[in-house]
Amino acid sequence: MSQIMKAFLGVFFLLFLTATSGGILSAFMVVMDAQDMHARMIDETENSNFYPEVLKECFAQAERSGYELSMTLYRENQALVRCTGEETVPEQTEDVDSAKLELTFPFTVPFLGIRTEHTLCAYAR
């Protein structure tokens, strides 16, 4: 009888650890995907010299993935332009020196009941 209880307890712990590690692994993959997307956006923004169509495409990519993107464009005359969507991207970006890109993504581990949002922040120069 004690061997049945030990076997059941062993199987229970194995299933519990499998479910927990699966949730943690899936959350890790979401974070890696968001980090990769954010790094690509930074590279594209820098390489395009802040071209408006590239900035709009970054917003479209974030929306397709279910993330939120916000940009702060820093102009040469110390003026700031805050962009929160494709429609708020200015048409003239020749005088932009740098940009701050903030990508907000959901972080969830359903099995453990963790539901938060995290933000990645970096500067393009």
Describe the structure.
- By secondary structure, this protein is α+β, with helices and mostly antiparallel strands.
- The protein is 48% helix and 30% strand.
- It is built from 2 helices and 4 strands.
- A 4-stranded antiparallel beta sheet has the order 2-1-3-4, with helices on one face.
- A hairpin with a 4-residue loop joins strand 3 and strand 4.
- The protein is rod-shaped, with a radius of gyration of 21 Å.
- The termini are far apart.
- The model has no long low-confidence stretch (mean pLDDT 94).
Structure keywords:
alpha+beta, 4-stranded antiparallel sheet, 4 strands, 30% strand
What secondary-structure arrangement, pairings included, does this model have?
Elements: H1 2-47, H2 52-65, E1 68-75, E2 80-83, E3 96-109, E4 114-124
Antiparallel strand pairs: 1-2, 1-3, 3-4
Helix pairs in contact: 1-2
Strand order of the largest sheet: 2-1-3-4
Estimate percent helicity.
Answer: 40-55%
Low-confidence parts lasting 5 or more residues at pLDDT below 50? none
Mean pLDDT across all amino acids: 94
> What portion of the residues fall into strands of 2 or more residues?
25-35%
Class of secondary structure makeup: alpha+beta
The number of helical segments is: 2
Principal-axes shape call? rod-shaped
Following the backbone from N to C, one meets helices and strands in this order, namely HHEEEE
SS elements, strand count:
4
End-to-end Cα distance, whole Å, is 69 Å
The whole-angstrom Rg is: 21 Å
Q: What is the makeup of the main sheet? A: 4 strands, antiparallel
